[in-house]
Structures are given as structure tokens and as C-alpha cells.
Predict the structure.
Amino acid sequence: MIHTIRHPRQHGFTLLEVLSVCALIAILAWLILPTLGAAKKEANRAKCATNLRQIGLALQLYTQDHNGNFPPTTHTTGSRHMEESWIYGLATYLDNIDEVRVCPADPAPRQEKIRSRKATSYSLNELVFDREEYRNIYRLPRPTRTLLAVILSENRSPSTGWDHVHCSLWSSWQNIINDVEVDRHRVGSRASDRLSGSANYLYADGHVANLPARELKKLSSSGINPGDVPL
Ligand SMILES: [Zn+2]
């Protein structure tokens, strides 16, 4: 008796099929990942601007309650306020200080340090907050063009001591990028020239501007100190 041997049809995938699927996945990832990166960047940039707007509003309310005077920084008060950043002076005017004081685009380990050290991602302009003649909102000649706060550079350790930056030294681009994360809102890592990206800036009338690093550098190159108090 002859038995016919039925060869079961082989199941599974051929190497070619597996490779095709892998290639397809790689192409999709290549198409989607930059879009996700850009979407995250936009979300962080918007959230950071919201933080700064709330800080701006809190500053307005604070000054109204203090005869126009701005809150003190560690520069003006020395070690007395070193245990927590200037921003804690605004706590009663902010809904959620722990949300507002951290830029969502700061790297996670840095955010962790900022939270635990009672610091903030946002640093104040020394030329306003630490100068007797301008430490009062009513004495600023041009609030719409007066810079109040920036995003502190990753070159600076997040600490209560860096609650203000020394804008009086911003005569060079190098000194500006030592103090300000001018490309905080970017996709990917820092470019070596620091020009691929933007940062948010708070002004004394409460408005927040998103300035590309390239534009800020242009200002700086033309001899303008963006931290100066315009007359
Ligand atoms: Zn100082």
C-alpha cells in the first residue's frame, strides 16, 4: 500500500517578507519621529510661554501690593533669601508654583534639581531687579520693551543664587549664552553655534515674546544689549 505523504504547507514568513516589514517600519518611524519631536517642541514652547505669562501677572499683582516695588533677589538680599528662589515671593499670586516655576523643555534631570532645590528655570534681569532706580515698576520708562525674565542657561547650575542673571555683562554673545538658554525650544540637541531654536522672554508690561536665537544674536551683534533698560 502506497501512502501518499502530504506535505503540509509551510507556515511562517520568508526572509524577504520579514525584511520588507522591517524596512516598512523603519520608513514609517523615519517619517513620524520628526513630527513627534516637532509637536513636543511646540507643546513645551506654549507651556513655557504660559508659565512666563502667569509669572508676569503675579509680578504685576505683587508690585501693586508693594507700592510698585519688585520682589527681592538673592543679589539684593544676600544670604537671607538663599533657601528659596525669588519666585516663592509670588507664591500667593500663583495657582500652582511648582508647575509654573519649571520650563517643560528643561531636561528631566535638571527639572528634578530645580524642584528639589526650590529654584526656578526662569531668571530675572539684574538691571531691573538689582538696580535701585528701576527696582520699581512705576519707574521703568518703557515697560513694553524692558526685559524682566529669561530661561536660565544649562551652563548655570539651577540654584537659588542664579535667580537673577548679570545682564550688565551682556556686551558679547558669549556672555548672553552663558546666562540664557537661547535655544531652549528646539528639536534635538544643542547646535554648536546655538542658533537653531528659540526662547521665551518676559517683558515688564506682562507680554511674553518667543525670540529665535538667530534674532537675538543679530541684536547683540549690532551693539544692542537686550537686557538694557530702554529710556
Ligand atoms: Zn548678582
